Amino acid sequence: MLLTPDPADEEFPSSLRALESSVSRPVLPSVPHERARLLLLGAFALSGLLAFSWLARIPGVRDLLSLSAADLGGILLIGSIGALATVVSSSALLARFGSARVFAAGTVIIAVGFVLMGLGPALGSRWLFGVGILVNGVGGSLVAVPMNVESTRVERAYGRSVIPHFHAAFSAGAVAGSILGAGAASVGLPVVAQFAAFSVGVAVLRLAALSAGMVLPGRPQALSGPPEKASRSAMSVWTEPRTILIGLVAFAATLGEGAANNWLALAVVDRFGTTEAFGGIALGVFIGAMTIVRLAGTRAIDRLGRVASLQLSLVAGLLGLAAFGLAPHPAVALVGAALWGAGAALCFPIAVAAVSDDHRGAQARVSVITSMGSIAVLTAAPLVGVAAEALGGAQQALLVVLVPLAAALFAARWVAPSLTRVADPAEILADVPEAVPAS
């Protein structure tokens, strides 16, 4: 129980006053953009944790619903299409409602989707599971776009590169989610119990972060005009050549990351006859290298600039993927996976930062980038699957990702800053002439 002194009591010991101050002082920083950064890091980590905790249970879900590979692929495709349709329209939603409201709605929708995804296998209902996948895809897009938009606002407030740190947090959350999902499976925790517990817990934490200041005051400056006009104008960014070319970079980066997540472990097991655990280690090497570079790469971006950093990343990704796809030995494959992951780390964060140079309408351009990433996620698994049938194995099939990575290398020069980066936090907090409450 805190001591509450009478302000008039001149003899109240100064040491007790200091103690009370230290106990009651908020743990989070008082500066809005510093507080937002910490909370947003947590939100990205929670997204990775939730997504990969479910991916770790796919084999159990498949068995409970007696799904063939084609059945499972078809259901997942429905969810991806729902996510894509939502993310394409998300810029208009942000223009009308703002980041906080869209994020909160997405949080609740995801929680509902995950509960349905758990109930489906428990009740033996493919239909219910499919609805859950669709709902989760929609909610995921509603959460992802505001998070990326807010990451650009935080970076502008700092005046230096910090966006890769958020994606590093997602990767760290993905590792934790995989471990937790595998642990839940090993102890026989029912899928429905895991999904319900994880979804509710993550939803509570996300909403708490939102309440604590995850979204900076005001709203990202929308394209000018009333909400209806702003919504129409938000779609016009799809005609901007620079935005589309940077979107190509995001597409290639996400395609490579998605292909690795789905096929890298399987490629190692099938090609070298290793154990499933070794395949998991190979994927862990890829994700681990990506996480480390995202944490350390911000200094490289600030020192070398976006263009040089992106070009170096893409070259590393090309060399690493080629080494992995042509590896004659498991050890070579591991080295290739590490170099591939390191190369993939900064591409998407750089693309997000590049389309946000002009904060007027940045939310619409970030939506384009996120949409291109969603398209890549949608196409990664089937593209590599078709190539694997034609080429006789997943290892060689992954080499098809070299083509979009090479195309992204030619488009890399377009990530050069188009405007002087804003470094004044006060300007970021006043993105619109009259700030609109974030909640």
Distance between the termini: 32 Å
Quote the average pLDDT: 81
* Structural class designation: mainly alpha
Query: Which descriptor suits the 3D outline?
Result: globular
**Count of DSSP strands:** 0
User: What is the helical fraction, as a range of percent?
Assistant: over 70%
Please outline the major beta sheet: none
What is the rounded Rg?
23 Å
The number of helical elements comes to 18
Residue share in β-strands: under 5%
Report the order of strands and helices: HHHHHHHHHHHHHHHHHH
Low-confidence stretches: 1-26, 222-227, 420-439
Account of the protein in words:
It is globular and about 50 Å long. It is mostly helical and 439 residues long. 77% of the residues lie in helices and 0% in strands.
